[in-house]
Design a protein that fits this description.
Distance between the termini: 31 Å
CATH topology: MetI-like fold
Order of helices and strands: HHHHHHHHHHH
CATH superfamily: MetI-like
Number of domains: 1
Oligomer: single chain
Strand content: under 5%
CATH architecture: Orthogonal Bundle
Largest sheet: none
Shape: elongated
Length: 285
């Protein structure tokens, strides 16, 4: 018999998405945040940059449900507009890192040889540096700003996606049907596009969702240090930095941006864990 032991063992069934409570919970929270970011001009009752110094640090009230910050700006409006910046940072940084890292991983895994050694060694060297310190060094070179922080975070995440895709390519290209397709002369780009990449997308999707939450946290950290979004931009890290001096006198200034940040990162983590369990049922064990 030509059947191998692996062929005789049935593959574990894939759970339906509706049976993944973490995935559903994460998507619901993420949909609410995305809706708030998309309809911010209609949901925010006040201009997030308008100041009222006479009523600064006003506690939450019916008129201002999240109170006013240290410059008299409406906290709710700034939190809603901050969702735009945070989701933008998370999605764009992951898209850049996954695209560049994925291309490097495909080249390294498929070509092998000295190209694989060079890319893998470069990834190992980059991952040896603390991520935040490397991001700070990049932002210091590019200059403070949200886009600089975004590029720095994306650059530091490239090795993670490169190594992930490289492992998937090495696994897929050794399969029998790939060897047979290569033997009959199927072009390389068709092998990669139609046979290798589909087998690598499942772990990439889960890592991208988890990486978006990590990217948001890192950009918020850079903004807290004054290297990311600059005042008066309604960015959660900058809001936490500006309100840290009043954390005891007016805790609502930092409480609500912190809760929004926690929910956003939590939603991406839930989506990433749910995708991992749905696309690869072996993780459920």
């Amino acid at each position: 018999m030509n059947e191998t032991l692996r062929d005789l063992i049935p593959a574990p069934p894939r759970c339906a998405p509706l049976k993944q409570p973490r995935l559903i919970a994460g998507l619901v929270i993420l949909a609410i945040l995305a809706g708030a970011a998309l309809f911010a001009p209609w949901l925010a009752r006040y201009d997030p940059l308008a100041q009222d110094l006479l009523d600064r640090r006003q506690p939450p009230s019916f008129q201002h449900p999240m109170g006013l910050d240290e410059l008299g700006r409406d906290n709710l409006s700034r939190v809603i507009y901050g969702a735009r910046l945070s989701l933008y940072v998370g999605i764009v940084s992951v898209a850049v890192a996954a695209t560049v890292g994925g291309l490097l991983g495909v080249v390294a895994g498929y070509r092998g040889g000295w190209i694989d050694s060079f890319i893998s060694s470069a990834a190992d060297v980059m991952m040896a540096f603390p991520t935040l310190l490397l991001a700070i060094a990049i932002v210091s070179t590019l200059g403070p700003g949200l886009n600089s922080a975004l590029l720095a975070v994306a650059f530091t995440a490239i090795p993670t996606y490169a190594r992930l895709i490289r492992v998937g390519v090495l696994r897929e290209k050794r399969k029998d049907h790939l060897l047979a397709a290569r033997a009959v002369g199927v072009p390389t780009y068709r092998l990669i596009r139609h046979h290798i990449l589909p087998g690598c997308l499942a772990p990439l999707q889960a890592q991208a969702a988890l990486g978006a939450g990590t990217a948001i946290l890192e950009v918020v950290g850079l903004s807290f240090l004054g290297l990311g979004a600059q005042p008066p931009a309604p960015e959660w890290g900058a809001m936490l930095s500006q309100g840290r001096g009043a954390i005891f006198a007016a805790p609502h200034i930092v409480l609500f941006p912190g809760l929004a940040l926690m929910l956003t990162v939590l939603s991406f983590n839930l989506v990433g864990s749910g995708l991992r369990d749905w696309l690869d049922p072996t993780f459920r064990a």
